[in-house]
Design goal:
Largest sheet: 4 strands, antiparallel
Pfam families: Lcl_C
Biased composition (Polar residues): 42-53
Shape: globular
Helix content: 10-25%
Radius of gyration: 21 Å
Order of helices and strands: HHEEEEEHHEEEEHHEEEEEEHHEEEEE
Organism: Pseudoalteromonas phenolica
Distance between the termini: 43 Å
Number of domains: 2
Structural class: alpha+beta
Strand order of the largest sheet: 3-4-5-9
Strand content: 15-25%
Biased composition (Low complexity): 29-41
Keywords: Signal
Length: 469
């Protein structure tokens, strides 16, 4: 136990060092109230500049009766967690409900014992190795250059051993650079053989046509976190398909909308997600294929873009004109009880967090609960409505609901009004620190983990097949 606590203390110190340059970090409730009143946005970067009178309110369309899975559009990976977390500490090796609640391990693809796969992979991950021309290889192939994710359809590059040279050397790091975003970019500030920034690296991959492809790109933050295996740590990935993975942070394509020169990255030590300066060298795992779990292309009305409209339900929200809305209102539907159906993920969310109610979630007070109390809350929801299957969302499900263009909160306020600025519990236990589970920051979408005795907000979810109240 002493060794584990020492490692955990080191992890927290690393968190503080990593996020010191990022304007938004998980903070206490009192600090949030003070900082939100004093926050300012980078010049020319926020939609706050539009302060004209609000247009008519945005209405979320209703389902025709019960919400069904018919419009579910974006398959995604489960967390890889096949064990249960107990309270206040320890994990249970098997997911046999000894913990007494419907946990992460008992939901989704990871819970399916007869899951059919195109390829193979740990837990419910389903991968196929590809050769230098992008052709499938057998699972036992000793050498491969890329991996196809058979769940999402994305193709990922595979790194070569560190310090061996070549453009895909796993030890090489890069600053983040995009010539279309000069105030967020830092050129050639990593550690590699030549031109060590993200744009130069992608140019090298595409010029060389790695695996026969010339459309390599940085993944968005939802895609990259979807690759995380939360049942593993250091690195938190399926190591049989992605050898030579570093335990550090990997760049995404997404700028941190409210912090100049800050860009989102995903850590493959324990699956954290945070923003950091573009000048700080990080690793890259490039991807190709249609962007997954990302609402680009959805219709966003001018009324919905107007910040004065958004701030009716989220008084401090700021949105960047440089980022496409990933969670517009057209992505969602409401059922007869006011619950919210996400057409991309197939999930149904409570409109309000625990303790709040009403059509605008203004009635009552948002409750902060420890992990045990959070599970007791969803159990009471189910007891009150026979046959319902409310639960805590997984850490990936929370991220998939993210509005990438906005912060405070990083959610659509017309769909989820008056969300409290703070952390919300996931149902995903930490596989290494067995007294901790993952939480998600609704203020700005940072992912971290806390001791299960800490109190956070609770936002219940259920699968679209569970359509009872």
């Amino acid at each position: 136990m002493r060794d584990m606590n020492s490692q955990k203390a080191l992890s927290v110190l690393l968190l503080l060092a990593f996020t010191s340059a990022c304007k938004y970090e998980p903070v206490s409730e009192n600090t949030q109230a003070q900082s939100s009143n004093n926050s300012t946005s980078p010049a020319g970067n926020s939609q706050n500049a539009n302060t004209t009178a609000p247009l008519p309110p945005i209405e979320v369309a209703k389902c025709d009766g019960e919400c069904t899975c018919d419009e579910f559009s974006s398959p995604y990976n489960d967390t890889g967690v096949t064990f249960a977390g107990d309270y206040p500490e320890t994990n249970l090796a098997s997911c046999d409900l000894q913990s007494g609640f419907n946990q992460d391990c008992s939901n989704g693809r990871d819970s399916m014992t007869d899951l059919a796969k195109t390829g193979t992979g740990n837990a419910s991950f389903d991968y196929t190795k590809l050769d230098t021309q992008g052709q499938p290889l057998s699972v036992n192939a000793a050498q491969w250059q890329c991996v196809r994710d058979n769940v999402t359809g994305l193709v990922w590059e595979v790194k070569s051993p560190g310090n061996t040279g070549g453009i895909q050397d796993s030890s090489f790091s890069y600053s983040w650079y995009d010539e279309s975003l000069p105030d967020y970019s830092t050129a050639d500030n990593g550690e590699c053989d030549d031109n060590c920034d993200s744009q130069s690296y992608l140019n090298k991959l595409n010029t060389q046509k790695v695996c026969g492809f010339d459309d390599w790109r940085l993944p968005n933050k939802i895609e990259l976190q979807d690759l995380v295996h939360y049942g593993n740590s250091q690195p938190s990935i399926d190591r049989d398909f992605f050898p030579n993975t570093q335990v550090g942070f990997y760049w995404t394509q997404n700028i941190d909308t409210d912090d100049t020169n800050s860009v989102w990255s995903v850590g493959f030590g324990t699956g954290r997600v945070a923003g950091g300066l573009s000048s700080e060298p990080k690793y890259i795992r490039a991807v190709r294929g249609e962007q997954n779990l990302y609402g680009i292309g959805e219709v966003v009305s001018e009324a919905e873009k107007l910040i004065t409209n958004r701030q009716v339900f989220a008084g401090n929200q700021r949105c960047s004109e440089r980022v496409s809305f990933s969670a517009p209102s057209t992505r969602y539907l409401q059922d007869e009880q006011g619950n919210v159906f996400d057409k991309q993920t197939g999930l149904i969310w409570k409109r309000c967090v625990a303790g709040l109610s009403g059509s605008e979630c203004k009635d009552g007070s948002a409750e902060q609960l420890d992990w045990q109390q959070a599970y007791e809350y969803v159990a009471k929801l189910n007891d009150a409505n026979t046959g319902s299957q409310w639960r805590l969302p997984s850490i990936k499900e929370l991220q998939a609901n993210n509005e990438l263009a906005c912060e405070e909160p990083a959610l659509n306020p017309f769909v989820f009004p008056n969300v409290p600025m703070g952390q919300v519990w996931s149902g995903t236990p930490h596989n290494k620190f067995e007294d901790s589970s993952y939480n998600y920051e609704y203020r700005n979408s940072i992912i971290f983990y806390n001791n299960r005795t800490v109190k956070h907000y609770v936002h219940a979810v259920k699968n679209c097949a569970a359509n009872s109240q």
